[in-house]
Design brief:
single chain; mainly alpha; Nucleotidyltransferase, domain 5; two-stranded antiparallel sheet; RNase_H-like_dom_plant; Reverse transcriptase zinc-binding domain-containing protein; nucleic acid binding; RNaseH_domain; RNA-DNA hybrid ribonuclease activity
Length: 370
């Protein structure tokens, strides 16, 4: 029964799906609104339908914006399905810390750090005691929280007031709470990142105390940890490409002599000289030829390029939003209108000031990269 009902929906000129599509007009918004929620109709109507073209159906890769397959998106899609619930990898990935500290933090969350208790379990040692205090077994809880040597290190910091159970929590809760805590700042560094670097130093100094007989813990471990983080942060910022910006004053520019600026039916009104301005650089680039056949909007882009090949002189240029304020206002106003085509016989009351400003050549400031 279900398969028969589905066939009736899509089959024949009188079928439901055929009723949703109308030649030259795309989606039949009224029909869609009778069957679907407005939010769903808005998403459907944003997809251009070529009901009269002869282009064959094409497979596109959905996870990318241009429909072209990429290994990156395939991996992300696979990782999304294989992600373990509660996995902290996203939390660790977003920390602004050195890569080696990220790797260590990941091992720490997975409890893969070889403490003496862990080494005994793996039959790599017979002594589970702490190599520094020699009083307790060296578990993760002891190594990073309760060992007297570590207590002194943590107390050298001004711990955030929100971490009231810092020394009494179990290891899992302690680790998660500190990695998620971003309220406390030390010299513009988040506590979560300082905490991760501090844990890495605890492990590093633990190893040095075992393999370097004359090693002594620093007198001010907190200062060393913060300075290390600051140096890495400074070096990392230097690697980022610095972009200088300058302020420009922009205004709407009238078209060259003999040209018209865009009218939606410009080519059908007999206009032969037309300049199209848009503040959406990506759209301008695509219409000017920077797109592939697998792009989800390829049908609409093909229609645009076919229009440009007509017997007229038409140029499509990118402009800043400050020089396109009237069109920008109309686009934003469309968010509060019903779906479908709207025609204004006269300028909207709130649009007139923008038109007057453009007519008078009003300059608007904008910082642009140089």
């Amino acid at each position: 029964m279900l398969s028969k009902a589905s066939w009736r929906i899509v089959a024949g000129d009188s079928g439901l799906w055929a009723a949703m599509l109308r030649k030259k007009t795309g989606w039949n918004i009224k029909k869609l609104l009778q069957a679907l929620l407005p939010e769903v109709v808005k998403q459907i109507s944003s997809i251009y339908v070529d009901v009269e073209g002869n282009r064959p159906d094409t497979c596109i890769w959905g996870p990318t914006s241009n429909g072209v397959f990429s290994v990156k998106t395939a991996y992300e899609l696979s990782a999304r399905f294989n992600e373990v619930p509660g996995s902290p990898w996203k939390l660790i990935w977003n920390l602004k810390i050195p890569p080696r500290v990220k790797m260590f933090t990941w091992l720490l969350t997975q409890k893969k750090i070889l403490t003496n208790v862990q080494r005994v379990r793996r039959h790599l040692s017979r002594d589970p005691s702490c190599p520094r205090c020699h009083y307790h077994e060296e578990s993760l809880q002891h190594l990073f929280i309760s060992c007297p040597r570590v207590l002194a290190l943590w107390r050298s910091f001004y711990l955030p007031k929100g971490l009231i159970n810092f020394f009494s929590s179990d290891f899992d809760s302690w680790l998660k709470e500190n990695l998620c805590y971003n309220a406390g700042h030390i010299r513009n560094l988040k506590w979560s990142s300082i905490f991760a670097v501090a844990c890495w130093f605890i492990w590093k100094w633990r190893y040095r105390s075992i393999f370097e007989p004359h090693f002594q813990m620093p007198c001010r471990p907190n200062q060393i940890i913060v300075e290390y983080h600051l140096e890495w942060d400074k070096a990392n910022n230097l690697l980022k490409k610095a972009t200088s910006r300058t302020q420009m004053f922009l205004a709407w520019q009238p078209p060259p002599c003999g040209f018209f600026k865009l009218n939606i039916d410009g080519s059908r009104l007999g206009l032969r000289q037309l300049t199209v301005n848009s503040d959406y650089a990506l759209v301008v680039d695509m219409i000017n030829g920077d797109w592939v056949d697998s792009h989800p909007m390829s049908v609409l882009l093909t229609k645009c390029t076919e229009l440009l090949k007509n017997q007229w002189n038409c140029s499509i240029l990118h402009v800043y939003r400050e020089t396109n304020s009237a069109a920008d206002f109309l686009a934003k106003m469309g968010h509060h209108k019903d779906l479908g085509y709207h025609e204004l016989s006269s300028p909207h009351d709130q649009l007139q000031p923008f038109l007057d400003d453009d007519k008078n050549g009003l300059l608007r400031p904008r910082f642009v990269p140089v």
